[in-house]
Description:
By secondary structure, the chain is mainly beta.
Amino acid sequence: MGSKSGVDGTLDVTLTGAAGNVTPTPYLSPDGRVVPVVSGMGVLFSDGFGGSAVDTAVRWDVLDGGLGANPTLHGKTLTQSAIGSGVAMGTGGNVAANTALSVSASALTVTMGTTASAELWLLGQQAFAGTEDLTVILSKSAALAANSIWAGLVEVDPVTLIPIYNANTPSYTQGSACPFYFTNAGGVELGMTAATTAFASVAVEDSSSVAQIGSVGTAIAALTTTSEFLVEFHAEDIITSNATIDSASAKGTTVSRVSSQCPNDGKVYKLLLRFRNIGTPGGSTTVTIQRLIVVDSQELRVEVASGRGDSNGQKAVAVNVANASLGVRCSITNFAGVTPSRITTGASGVVTAAAGHVLYSYDLYNTQASVRFLQIYNKATAGVPGTDTPVKMIPIPATSRAALTTDIGWYNFATGMSWAITTDAPGATAGATGDVVGTLGYA
């Protein structure tokens, strides 16, 4: 994947693999076997911006003014309509010495300047097909509505690997003065408003005249703080989420998702960084990018306990629970040695006055028209709502049953086990006799 053809139809560059995106040389394993290196951990493209300049040999094409200001690319003549009306910030063509770009300390710095409608592209030289995830780690010096920073995948011609122009040239709401030139594209726009934490997923499909923008997401911190964005490309949607770098905390819950106009997944794509001034900025914003990485469907792996997990409901694994009103039951319904304790009368009572027991099950029914709570206490006498502190609270919906049986058990009741019915979750207000009836099982 990613072969590039020359104008004469011959193959002039082969771009595959991970580091440097060139086919790596096989290496010898410790036992002497030749091990071919194809890709590291599913990485399709990666740049941590080492060295002192943008890597234009195998990673990036630098396009001053956007594609419209560059009539040729790698010796290939563009046949599609000109893209963009941006003012070239360099000399045009595939140049590395762009005055807006600098690389140092493992970071790329882009100085956006104050020229109205100026545009700059960094177009990756690796081509992709299929489902990818893009991670971008960046920060910006200011939040100006006149700055548009877009990172994503754009469709390219499968032979020339040049982005294909969309004759319909759609605009979209967030950057109303910023045309969206592509036949198929999807990604995230950062900094399109003065809000310091705003970002949004943007997509267009098959030369549509409408580029669709998802709901605006909210970053965990202002973008003046280095932040990590994950853009997940799927056939059915594009989801962009944000996380604090170098932290095991969960991702932010306010994400941006777009499901209409998602790019055609049967096309070929390249990574694009697009910097554009919409109108005349009030100052020059500096964008610092520490790393970009494209991986092959990384998050198709299920991660339950890792800090890389998130609480985004769009990516939750659905579970259909039969007889949900009865609570969750495991397959074991009887345990040798489990003693039942019935709740039939009274608003409080004692399960057992002996120490060292564990609660294994409950089967309860709320006779009232509003929710009731069964509070469980670590004490040998009946619980007193508002005085005793419960160690477990079981909510029972109005005129409904709540039941659970487990072979794990809850809590070691070192003193004893008792209960009380309350009308509130904290356990401060006592309920009435007969509000809840049922059975507790302990051993």
